[in-house]
């Protein structure tokens, strides 16, 4: 009977450790639990751009501002998160802008810890503005028309030239390629936790 009790005694401290850790995680106010709804600002580690990035590509973004609970830093600045591109439509002829979407799915700590996270990206990214280019196309078309009208040497010629210029500018607008979505390296964006994030207990 004594032989059977001895192994149990050796296992008892381990049971206490696991039970204590589970109890620690279970507490809603635990410093190791970042609650759902927490917003985290991340800084992009590399540029993303439609026409270059592809669906399935992964990237790293780092915490730009530390997350605190009860005055203690629980998610330090620089903590790495991994994202994955889910939509990457490049800009097309006819003025169709590109589209770029991604999700953030993992938290990375060192080279050993990779923890799944459920998040929502709150920041929206729009296509680069190219209004100046479009305006230049219209003005350029009108200028060409004016020169043709001047060369015709008559009032009707000027009207004809203006019409041709309008046609050129309209054609340029039709053939104008849409705008790409570009997210520069170092740009910040915000994610929101959809579920509680349980942080690993690290021995610093």
Any chance you could write out the topology, listing elements then pairs?
Elements: H1 2-26, E1 33-34, E2 39-44, E3 48-49, E4 58-63, E5 67-69, E6 72-75, E7 80-89, E8 99-109, E9 113-116, E10 119-121, H2 131-152, H3 155-175, E11 182-183, E12 188-193, E13 197-198
Antiparallel strand pairs: 1-13, 2-4, 2-12, 3-11, 4-7, 5-6, 7-8, 8-9, 10-12
Helix pairs in contact: 2-3
Structure write-up:
The chain is α+β, with helices and mostly antiparallel strands and 204 residues long. It has two domains: 116 residues, Type IV secretion system, VirB10/TraB/TrbI (Lipocalin); 45 residues, no CATH class. It contains three helices and 13 strands; from the N terminus they run H-E-E-E-E-E-E-E-E-E-E-H-H-E-E-E. Helix 2 runs antiparallel to helix 3. About 30% of the residues have low confidence.
Per CATH, the architecture of the largest domain is Beta Barrel
CATH class of the largest domain, named Mainly Beta
Total E-strand runs = 13
Supply the helix-strand structural class.
alpha+beta
Taken together, the total number of domains comes to 2
CATH topology of the largest domain: Lipocalin
CATH superfamily of the largest domain: Type IV secretion system, VirB10/TraB/TrbI
Helix content: 25-40%
Radius of gyration: 29 Å
Compute the separation of the termini in Å.
42 Å
Question: What would you call the shape?
Answer: elongated
The DSSP helix count reads 3
Low-confidence stretches: 4-26, 130-151, 158-173
Strand content: 25-35%
Main-sheet strand order equals 9-8-7-4-2-12-10
Main beta sheet strand tally, sense and closure: 7 strands, antiparallel
Write the element-wise H/E pattern from the N-terminal end onward: HEEEEEEEEEEHHEEE
Average pLDDT reading: 74
């Amino acid at each position: 009977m004594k032989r059977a009790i001895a192994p149990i005694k050796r296992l008892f401290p381990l049971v206490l450790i696991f039970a204590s850790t589970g109890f620690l995680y279970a507490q809603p106010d635990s410093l190791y639990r970042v609650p759902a709804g927490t917003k985290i600002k991340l800084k992009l580690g590399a540029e993303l751009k439609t026409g270059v990035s592809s669906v399935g590509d992964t990237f790293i973004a780092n915490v730009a501002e530390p997350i605190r609970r009860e005055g203690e830093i629980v998610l330090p600045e620089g903590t790495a998160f991994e994202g994955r591109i889910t939509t990457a439509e490049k800009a097309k002829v006819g003025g169709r802008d590109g589209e770029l979407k991604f999700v953030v799915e993992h938290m990375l700590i060192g080279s050993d810890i990779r923890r799944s996270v459920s998040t929502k990206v709150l920041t929206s990214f729009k296509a680069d503005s190219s209004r100046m280019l479009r305006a230049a196309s219209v003005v350029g078309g009108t200028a060409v028309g004016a020169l043709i009208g001047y060369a015709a040497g008559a009032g009707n010629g000027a009207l004809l030239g203006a019409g041709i210029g309008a046609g050129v500018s309209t054609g340029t607008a039709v053939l104008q390629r849409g705008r790409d979505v570009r997210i520069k390296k170092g740009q910040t964006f915000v994610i929101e936790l959809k579920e509680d994030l349980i942080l690993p207990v690290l021995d610093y």
